[in-house]
Amino acid sequence: MNRYFRDKVTPDELVWSFAGVRALHNGGAEWRAATAAGNYVLAFDKRAHTAPLLTVYGGRVTTHRKLAETAMAKIGHYFEAGPRWTANSRLPGGEFTSDAFGDVVAEMMARWPFLTEAHARRLVRAYGTRAERFLGDAQKMDDLGERFTGDLTAAEVRYLVVHEWAETAEDVLYRRSKLGLGASDEERQALARFLGALNPAPARQAAP
After folding, report:
1. Which residues of 16-49 are buried (b: 16+ CB within 10 A; e: fewer)?
2. CA distance 152 to 129
3. Helix ranges restricted to H, the chain
């Protein structure tokens, strides 16, 4: 980073870091990581009288639906899989076209007038129409409970715990959002205490 920016960054200024590993399939002499990153290879091992084994190498979020269809074409008949259906389906909360994003934001602000435009845009971007599940009948921000950092409220955190399986402050601040980039140590600790006090913990639900 310091090779490209005038103002240098030092290790003590880092807020958060992470590393991940993605398995890529080595295609031989012509293989290059940059071009292989979005590709995938399915290795199918089927033998008589034993359960089949399907191994997936590679892939990424942008190809996950096509990858899933390819995988089901190989293994689906073992489980009497139904017809393909994901190509025209929307992600949960995304039951609107991309050019209607502004309309959904405006509708949210009309229904919950206490939301700022920035807050409404973040909620629509993160949850789509599902934000109504934790906004509910709120008439003012205070109705959404404690605020932790920025516009992150207790109601939103509870939703993340129940419906998106968040367990820790890091889950909420970084893995479900990037709000931790602007959170202070005190705010992170307050969120951790809140999560620890959810006793009994809300029953987690798989999003339908």
Report:
1. eeeeeeeebbeeeeeeeeeebeebbebeeeeeee
2. 17
3. 33-36, 64-75, 101-111, 117-127, 132-135, 154-163, 169-170, 185-196
Q: Are 84 and 113 in contact (CB under 8 A)?
A: no
Non-local CB neighbours of 5 within 8 Å, separated by 6+ positions: none
For residue 49, give Cα distances in angstroms to 46, 52, 71. Answer: 9, 9, 21
Q: What is the pLDDT of residues 12-34, one digit of tens each?
A: 988 888 888 777 777 666 666 66
Predicted TM-score of the model (pTM): 0.77
User: What's the CA gap between 135 and 9, in Å, rounded?
Assistant: 39
| Helix, strand, coil shares, percent, the chain, to 5 | 45, 5, 45
How many CB atoms within 10 Å of residue 116? Answer: 11
Angle among Cα 64, 89, 93 to the nearest 5 degrees reads: 95
